[in-house]
Design a protein that fits this description.
Length: 64
């Protein structure tokens, strides 16, 4: 999942700071999300999925 959220961000040429601001967290916190050092809260996953127009299953790499 962590590589996937980084790849989505980079594909849109966005900085960690821009996404962190959208999620109302610090850039350092968002960096920890991308590095897998900190679990992403459900509410942030929902915001990321909506922002990138993907499913939460896609972000979590859940295969049906």
């Amino acid at each position: 999942m962590y590589k996937r959220i980084r790849d989505l961000r980079e594909d849109k040429d966005l900085t960690q700071n821009q996404i962190a601001n959208m999620l109302n967290v610090s850039q350092a916190t968002y960096s920890r999300y991308e590095n897998g050092q900190l679990d992403i809260p459900s509410q942030s996953l929902i915001k990321l999925a909506a922002f990138y127009k993907v499913s939460i299953d896609y972000l979590l790499e859940i295969r049906g």
